[in-house]
Amino acid sequence: MKTKKISNLENFSGTILIPVFETSSKSIIPIKFDDIEISSKVFYGKKDTHYLAEKNNNIYLFIGLGKEIDYRSIKTIFRRISSKEIESFPKCVALFIPEQFNDALVEASVSGLLLGTYNLGHYKIKGKHPFLDDHFELEILSTNDHSVIINKAIKIARAQLETLRLVDLPPNKVSPKYLANWAMDKGAKYGFEVEVLGLEACEIQGLGAFLAVGKASQHEPQFIIMKYVPKENEKSLKHIGLLGKGITFDTGGLNIKTAGMLEMKCDMAGGAAVFGAMQLIADLQLPVKITAIVPCAENSVDNKSLLPSDVIHSYSGNSIEIIDTDAEGRLILADGLSYLIKNFEPEYIIDIATLTGSSMGTFGHECAALFTNNEAISKKLQKVGDAIGERLWPLPLWDVYKQDIESDIADVKNYSGKPLAGAISAAKFLEYFTQDHPAWAHLDIAGVAFGDDEFAKSKHATAYGVQLLTQFIEEL
Ligand code: BES
Ligand code: ZN
Ligand code: ZN
Description:
With 476 residues, this protein is of the alpha/beta class. The protein folds into 2 domains: 144 residues, 3-Layer(aba) Sandwich (Leucine Aminopeptidase, subunit E, domain 1); 307 residues, Zn peptidases (Aminopeptidase, 3-Layer(aba) Sandwich). It has 12 helices and 22 strands. The strands form 5 sheets. Strands 9, 10, 11, 12, 13, 16, 17, 18 and 20 form a 9-stranded mixed beta sheet that branches. Strands 1-8-7-2-6-5 form a 6-stranded mixed beta sheet, with no helix packed on it. The protein is elongated, with a radius of gyration of 24 Å. The model has no long low-confidence stretch (mean pLDDT 97). The site of one zinc ion (ZN) has 5 residues, from strand 12.
């Protein structure tokens, strides 16, 4: 989507989007814009309402914002307008920027408009959203120049659209190889390096916990490593390690899921958030160094399946007793963490994963569970999350929970065997492989990565994490 600034509507003919802050249903002053007047009896800017008017061949789409508006709500409102009012968009569309709009609100509205082009019907014969037409230009009606923030808003939405698509496409299309190809394509396009370890390379490296998970699948596992440094490479850049769970489908393995399996194409949503963040960080040319790993595998079933009670050997050298083959995410992340720390020594490490049903049981779909012993990281992640509506809330990493993963036969076990404190014991398992890294955080996004909303009939991706990770890194 391209944009162009205009300072008046003199030569404009088309649809004008006009955000309106709430006045009052009893206000005697009508809402006015360019010779149109709307009585407050029919529209007064109430949140989630809109009003269409037509004059001189122009369509005026007044958009109610309520009295105060937050980043996430405005993004949703503009996504709704863009996705549900398609018939009101002829060739030309202008967005009026009210004077009260700060950079964040401009960013959220433009990102929302572009996100509204997302259509879940990837395998349906369908027309292109008008905003995606090569010739389309969104005209920005404003006295000020917002071009920097608008360009950023478009990059954010483009990265989020990629993540939405990767998560929503079915697991027979999005295999580990598909994700490796995605990373290589985008690496070449946006400027980050990609290295992919296939089965043989992983065996040579000794990524035993990762390989154990994927071994009953027809799809070869792929351990994807991405490296970004800005084009203008300065010295003393902060080095951040990212790690995302890339299970392209989670059947549960031999401990096969008896509930919720249909949704398990979302089990690579942490990985997809890391992919989206890599695209965005490179697109924005942020002055940081990133090493990101997405171990990708399918947790399936056949005669080579991992068995409950098997003992496997991880990259770190530690042995792991398998209590439940459905606790597979922590196995691939254990090797991801060890590999990241041993080979790249990042200063900060954030992992993001649809790790436990327990985190969803605790927080529902409202926020992700955050685990870290680093106060500064915890505060900053929460601050960014609150600002953009990708919220997080901390849970403890107390050592009393260590006993949940103590094994008699091996160094550690992958599950306590009891349906208690599941998100915490999973985090303790990951912590075991961090070598007491002083700046590690784990984000359990099982409840927020995939859900119901007004944009489709079935559950679908949210792109949670793309902007959170990027903005956190930007503000470090
Ligand atoms: N992928 C699931 C977690 C999940 C649940 C993601 C719901 C998204 C929505 C994970 O691999 C899993 O199966 N976890 C089990 C672990 C248990 C067997 C120790 C869980 O949380 O029930
Ligand atoms: Zn599982
Ligand atoms: Zn899983």
